[in-house]
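Protein modeling request. Please complete all fields; requests missing the sequence field cannot be processed.
Requester role: graduate student
Desired output: 3D structure, token encoding
Chains: 1
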Amino acid sequence: MQRTFFARLIVTSMMIISVMATSGCGNTSIEAKNAFQQGVKAGENGDLDLAISFYSEAIRLKPNHADAYYTFFRRGDAYAKKSDLDKAITDYTEAIRLKPDFADAYYRRGLSFAQKSDSDKALADYTEAIRLKPDFAEAYNMRGTAYAQNGDLDKAIAAFTEAIRLKPDLAEAIHMRGVVYWDQGDSGKAIAAFVEAIELRPDLADAHYMMGVAFGKQGDSDKAIAAFTEAIRFKPNYSEAYYFRGVAYSAKDDKGKAELDFAKSRQLGRNSKR
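Delivered output (274 residues):
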């Protein structure tokens, strides 16, 4: 443990020295650029704390630089990956202040608001991102999700449909449109959407989960179990998939496997009673 700490300290020191060594004679613009680049490298290596430190140094050196908006944006992404959503939102907001037409910053801030369960603010940001970038398929997809969460299913379908028109292979939008069809009682369209989403993204756990729900409703416990098992394979902590696989096992009178799945679901945090 101590050796790992010192190894990390040495690497960090070397990176800082590298920034200083290539900065020339006090040229803060070059220093800021190098700090930014080191932040990108650290982020790519999965060291988010170090990335944030370098981005912060770049901002300190040149807070009013023409490209400072992008440094705030990248630091916001790092905070978002750490689930430090308030700091992420603050950085995205600063990026927007510095570059008001920055559609990606509105989109990412919307994602952070959505993670904080503030669907109204998320919806406003997705809508602004679309206004600035009309072909932003991912923003249409997330606007559809926000509409669905607010219970506005017709607008949700319209948003998902536009996302799919702009990007026909956007499996997430196809899947989510299927979820809305399911909520509207149109199981035929829903299942077709889930199948298409899985064909495009075989690892899309939520689509496998919804196929399991559909098979369960049809009374086909074997296919339901197979679908929930696929969902769990791609998302090992999927408590709902464990729970409903347990329900499917119960329907087959396989109490042992059912109890194991219910226990696993409870362990992962599902509080619903069966």
